[in-house]
Amino acid sequence: MEDRSDTHFYCFLRYNDRCSMAEAKQKQALKYQMRRSSRARRLRIDVHADGRVVVIRPLRVSRTSAEQFIVQKIPWIKKTLAGLARARKAIGIEYPFARKHLSATEYQRQREAAHTFVEERIGYFNRLYQVPVGRVFIRNQKTRWGSCSSKGNLNFNWRIVHLSSAAADYLIVHELCHLREFNHSQQFWKLVGQAVPEYARIRKELRALPL
Ligand SMILES: [Zn+2]
């Protein structure tokens, strides 16, 4: 099912605030990209999951003002980067793992590996759940790890092969349980917990790490 709460992830964390333009007292080394945008209304800092820091600057905001803003936000940026690094370590993912970094052959190989892996784990967990599973698709989804359809088909992101086995298992069990409980009720989480008792921790880690 459509799942805003945990199988969807936002592309990046944002700092979005009005700039007080206070004089920056200290300069600290920080790598970032700056982009001017005709659509942006406010200065914004996007911290991407791979560690890139991108500053979006509206046309009317000067470069100097933007730089002052960045300096002020350095503690927030550093905290965010550290949080992402912890989450990456916890769930095992390494960046870059974007589709564009892979050749067609390598992408195909990873997709097939994901398919084999997911089918095998579904078989394993379905000895417990015993739900009818439709087809399994591996997709290049940019905003989610997995989803399921009312027809009983399951979709997983090919990046699942880059996750720790605990995180991957959680995603598989999550979608599998939706075939019994098409919601996120207490009953649903109880089902998930039967196979993955530590689901709450893994869910939190996955949510901390946007795709
Ligand atoms: Zn769900």
Describe the structure.
The chain is of the alpha/beta class and 211 residues long. It folds into two domains: 12-91, no CATH class; 99-208, Metalloproteases ("zincins"), catalytic domain (Zincin-like), CATH 3.30.2010. 42% of the residues lie in helices and 15% in strands. The strands form two sheets. Strands 1-3-4-2 form a four-stranded mixed β-sheet, with helices on one face. Helix 2 (74-91) crosses helix 6 and helix 3 (104-129) crosses helix 4 (165-178). The longest helix has 26 residues, at 104-129. The two termini are 19 Å apart. Zinc ion binds at residues 3, 6-7, 174, 178, 184.
Summarize the structure.
The protein is of the alpha/beta class. 42% of the residues lie in helices and 15% in strands.
Features:
211 residues, alpha/beta, four-stranded mixed sheet, three-stranded mixed sheet, elongated, binds zinc ion
